[in-house]
Specification:
The protein has 260 residues and is α/β, with parallel strands linked by helices. It has one domain: Rossmann fold, CATH 3.40.50. 43% of the residues lie in helices and 22% in strands. The protein is built from 11 helices and 9 strands. The strands form 2 sheets. A 7-stranded mixed β-sheet has the order 3-2-1-4-5-9-8, sandwiched between helices. A two-stranded antiparallel sheet has the order 6-7. Helix 8 links the parallel strand 2 and strand 3. The longest helix has 18 residues. The radius of gyration is 19 Å and the shape is globular.
Length: 260
C-alpha cells in the first residue's frame, strides 16, 4: 500500500512538472501563436463576442481602475478589444474609442456589436507585442484581464509599453492589469532545471519564473513581487500614478504616466 501511495504522489509531481515545461521549450513567438490558436477556436470566439459578455460592462476591479484614470475623456485605445465589452462601455461615456486585437474575427465583430448598441468604434488587427501606432495620438490606453502578462518575455513587455508611451499625448495615461501571484516563485533548483531544459532544447531562453499557460489556453506571466512589475514600468519610461496588488484576486493594476 505504501508503494502505491508513494507512486501516486510521484506521478502527480511529475504531471505538475511536465505541465510547466511547454513555456520552457516554446519560444516567445510560439507562445503567442499558441494563444492565438486558442482564440481562433470558434467556441472561444463566440463566447467573447456574444451578447452576455458584450453587455456585462466593467467588472468591479476594472471599474475601480477606471475611476483612478486622470483622463476621463478624449481618444482611447483599447488593447484586446474582443467583442467590444470595454470599448462599448467607454464609448457610452464619451470617449472616442479605437481597439486592437490579434484575432481578425473579433476585430470585425466589435464594431458591429457597438453599432447595434448605438456606439461608433474602430478596430484593427495588430499583435500587441509588435504595435505600430501613430505618435502623440491617444489620451488613454486601456488593457485589462490581465493582458500585460500575456506578452511572453520581459523585453517584449517593455518594448510594447515604450511603443504605447510614444503614442500617448502629453498628459496621457495607461490603465492596465497584470497577473499578480506572490506564490508564483520557484526554488533555485527548479529554476536551474528549467533553464537547463531551455538550453538543451534550444527553447525559450527568455523564460522566467512565473511563466505559465494559464488554464492551458494562453500564455501568462505571474508577477510574484511588486518590484518586478514596477521595474518594468520604470524601464519603459513610466511613472506609476496608482497601483493595487489585490489580496483576493490573481490580478494587480496600475495607472501609468509617461515620464517628462
Amino acid at each position: 500500500m505504501a508503494i502505491h501511495f508513494l507512486l501516486g504522489k510521484f506521478f502527480l509531481r511529475m504531471a505538475s512538472f511536465l505541465r510547466s515545461l511547454p513555456v520552457v521549450v516554446m519560444k516567445p513567438d510560439d507562445l503567442i501563436r499558441f494563444s492565438r490558436e486558442t482564440y481562433l477556436n470558434p467556441s472561444f470566439r463566440n463566447e467573447w463576442t456574444g451578447d452576455t459578455i458584450t453587455d456585462s460592462g466593467l467588472q468591479a476591479d476594472e471599474q475601480n481602475l477606471y475611476e483612478q484614470l486622470p483622463c476621463q475623456t478624449g481618444r482611447m485605445l483599447v488593447l484586446g478589444i474582443g467583442g467590444g465589452r470595454e470599448a462599448i462601455f467607454f464609448g457610452r461615456r464619451g470617449y472616442q474609442v479605437e481597439g486592437i486585437d490579434f484575432i481578425p474575427e473579433m476585430v470585425n465583430c466589435a464594431p458591429e456589436n457597438a453599432k447595434r448598441r448605438g456606439i461608433d468604434i474602430k478596430a484593427q488587427v495588430q499583435e500587441i507585442s509588435q504595435l505600430r501606432l501613430p505618435p502623440n495620438c491617444y489620451d488613454v490606453v486601456w488593457f485589462t484581464r490581465p493582458l500585460y502578462s500575456c506578452i511572453p518575455a520581459r523585453k517584449k513587455r517593455i518594448h510594447m509599453l515604450a511603443a504605447l508611451g510614444d503614442s500617448l499625448k502629453t498628459g496621457g495615461c495607461i490603465g492596465c492589469q497584470f497577473h499578480w501571484d506572490p506564490l508564483a516563485r520557484l526554488n533555485k533548483k527548479a529554476i536551474f532545471i528549467r533553464r537547463l531544459i531551455a538550453i538543451l532544447t534550444l527553447g525559450n531562453f527568455s523564460w522566467q519564473p512565473g511563466d505559465m499557460l494559464w488554464g492551458g489556453v494562453e500564455f501568462s506571466h505571474a508577477f510574484s513581487s511588486k518590484n518586478e512589475v514596477l521595474e518594468e514600468f520604470n524601464q519603459a519610461g513610466f511613472l506609476v500614478a496608482y497601483s493595487d496588488f489585490y489580496d483576493h484576486s490573481p490580478r494587480g493594476c496600475a495607472v501609468l504616466m509617461k515620464k517628462t
